[in-house]
Every structure is written in C-alpha cells, then in structure tokens.
Amino acid sequence: MSPRQDRRPVVTGIGVVAPNGVGADAFWKSTREGISVLDHITREGCDHMPVRVAGEVRGFDPESLVEERYLVQTDRFTHFAMAAADMALADARITSGDYSESPFAVGVVTAAGSGGGEFGQRELQRLWGQGSRYVGPYQSIAWFYAASTGQISIRGGFKGPCGVVASDEAGGLDALAHAARAIGRGTDAVVIGAAEAPLAPYSLVCQLGYRELSTSEDPERAYRPFTSAASGFVPAEGGAMLVVEEESAARRRGAAVRAVVAGHAATFTGASRWEESREGLAQAIRGALAEARCAPEEIDVVFADALGIPDADRAEALALADALGTHGRRVPVTAPKTGTGRAYCGAPVLDTAAAVLALQDGVVPPTPNVFDVCHELEVVTGRPRPAELRTALVLSRGLMGSNAALVLRHGANTR
User: Fold this and answer.
1) Short name of one Pfam family for this protein (predicted)?
2) Distance of CA 87 to CAs 66, 91, 92, Å?
3) pLDDT given at position 1
C-alpha cells in the first residue's frame, strides 16, 4: 500500500534524555547556548578503558520516571527511551483517552545500535560466577534491540505498526522515515526515536575496535570535527523520542504542530569508507530534497553528522557542496553533539529534536569546542546565531556505512 500524499506527518511532541539535560527545555537551553558537558567517564568498571571521555546522562532517576515492574526487566537504554516517550506524549498532549478507542492507530518505532549491554553483562557474570539458576528471566529480552519498542507499546497500549530499525547510527533518521510512511499508509500517530546506553564495560569493549573513537583525555579537545585537531568522536548515552502524527488528526486534537517531516533518503557505502561516503551522503541529500520538493537554496541550516575523522569530515563538506552547490558553502552548519558526545542511534534523533526547536526559536545553536574550522563550511561556533529558519537538513552516517538525510520544515509552513 503506497503512502497517501495528502497525509502529512508532523512532529507534535519531543522528549529528551541527554547528557546536557533531561527534558526538552533543559536540553534546548544547554544546546542553544553551546554548553559542553563532555567529561571523564565515571561509570563503574570503565576506569581502565583507553576511552577516557564521554557524554554521560547524570541526574536521571529512573525510579521516579518508570514503574518498578518495568525497571527490573529492562536495561538502562530502555529506561531512557520509556522516560523520553512519556515526555514526548505529554508534550504532544496525548492522554490515555485520546486513542483508547483506536489503539491500532498508534505505532512505535525505535532504532538501536547496541541494545542492553549493561543488563546482558550483569546476567552473564551471574551465569559464569554463580550458575544458570541465578540468571534472571528477563535476560532473553532486556538486551534485545527491540526491547524499547516493545516496552513502550505495551506500556502505552499502542497496537499499531511497531518495529525497530537496526541500520547503524543513521537508523535514528531511518526510524523517522518509517514513522512518516506509516502515517501515509493510514496510521494516525507514531512514537519514534532512539536511546542508547553504551557506557558500560562490555559495551565499551565492543566499541574499542572503532578506529574513529577518540582516546583523548582532554574533554575540550576529544571531539573537534571539521578542525585540523580532529581525532575521532566521543561516545555518549541518551537519546530522544518524538511523537509524529498525521497533520489533520493532530489539528483535530488541538495539538501544536512543531515541524513537518518533509523528506528522507538513505544510502549505503560500506564500513569506514569515508571517501566513498561523499557520494553516498550527497545522494541521500538529493533524495531527501526531492521527496520534500525542496530546492537546495531553501535549506536554512544543516545539522551535520560531524564524525571528527579528517577523511569523514572532508567527505561531508564535499557532499554538501555536491548536493547543495555553492549554497552548501554558505548555509549555516552546526553540530551540537560536539558538546554532548555521539549517542550512536540516539545522536541523529537528538539532532532532529534540536532542529525542530531551532526552527521554532529562529536560532542556530553553536558547535561546542570547535573554533578553527579547516573546511569550506559555514560552521556556527562560539555563540548562537539568530536566523529566519524555515527548513532544516539533518545528516547522519554510521560507522558500518549507512548514510541518511532528513528534511524538516517549520510547523507553520504550508505545502
């Protein structure tokens, strides 16, 4: 069944659990001002790792946000997702009664890159240290990539199309595309997003094979994309959940339309082939623009992937020039994740949340810790930049080769 063109997907709710703030307001205040919260890793069992700096979520109390019966059967990454989903639903002003008579009209889609590593590690330690009788019954589900989707849908009573996207870091944007297409096929609302919790010993060990991972011990220098000092990215935990609704259904509820999900496209160019990602990312941008019926010069701000590897940064700068022409060298570019770290699948959803808030406030947030840009890009640094923003482009690439681009339009924009 093909999506209907008259069913437009719009963002009506945002929920955030990020290193720089829990809740959309706290996240945006810190992001807008360019505050960096990168610091030395303090999570238990990680002090001997070569990765020293990360973006940790602090001040998050899962017991106050998630019921105990869900906490005991889920990992930290799902705690983040459930809390963020609740915030997004509250922001969208969706109550338990809004869809109680039509639960199949609401779906859930999340993206995941690492699953519940902390939960899995704990249960495996019990297996080898104490025996199989000490392994909890939730080991079979808590580590699973689809755990967040399942728990959010069960907890909310959402019985519409549900799924999980496992397509690298770019899966955060691909999940939004799945939500938008579900809206086009008849679903009224989709709770969508991604949250990761990769800062546990087993999870960090799994990341050590990434040559793109920064091992700098200085939080101010560990993650500096688009500069001559670029030496990799800093990992992070957290993420965001959004509520995407069919526009007319949202307006019937009296919901505020924050932004329009206008276009998306994805490509694949292979693991760590950063020079080839130029062509793949440019093709994704062109595809997203075409779906959005958007001319290159209409893009008012770019939220960059900003990997922090010289070859990857150069490829991204060239991809923007290839896809947007000379406008690609003039359009404001930002990468707020340099102040929070790269939360894998959660990173592009956090960028999407920031892009929606930037469109609303008419301001481009700066790129923390980045000053001496060495590429032909108009990277916003230092201070937030006021601007008339109608259309935003969000980019994401995965370490295994996925590329994705998303076009968002201001909620007040018409077709």
Assistant:
1) ketoacyl-synt
2) 12, 6, 9
3) 43
